[in-house]
Amino acid sequence: MLVIHWTRQNQTSAIKANGIHPTHRRDRITGKPKNIRGVYAYPFSRIRTLMGNWRRNLKTWDLKLGNYNGFVFRLAPEDFPLFAGYWFFNRSDPGEALIGSMEELAEKYGCFFSGEIVNMTEEGASYNWEDFEIIIPRRIEARRIIRILKDREPQSRAKSR
Fold first, then answer.
1. For 19-33, 45-59, 94-108, which range has the lowest pLDDT when averaged over its residues?
2. Distance separating alpha carbons of residues 100 and 98, to the nearest angstrom
């Protein structure tokens, strides 16, 4: 299963050299950690609109000007146990979101990786793609990164040309 991790563009060289390190999400006001420590990732899809969703969200939520690059890697058995599900459940009750194996992840959330989640049925969507996340509590080595999706050039550099 392929996943993508979005991070600020200026961290690309460090990640290419050292991999992706687990971090906390921080409260905007207090600056204190407010979430599970881990590498935050999302299911990878070849549908550009879906892939750009989290990047757009991060740009909107982050008050600083900046662009994001996506790092695609394959989940491995050593990544388990991990946390997966709706982002607000992952934060409010991490124990419920704990997934012990690749098989359990495929059984519970395989629709996010197969792409069938984006096909609307008569009943509507059963799960919202935009709210799903995976939190891996361990570092991802640089050699595991398969592809880097680059955002456009930072605006400050583009204006100076």
1. 45-59
2. 7
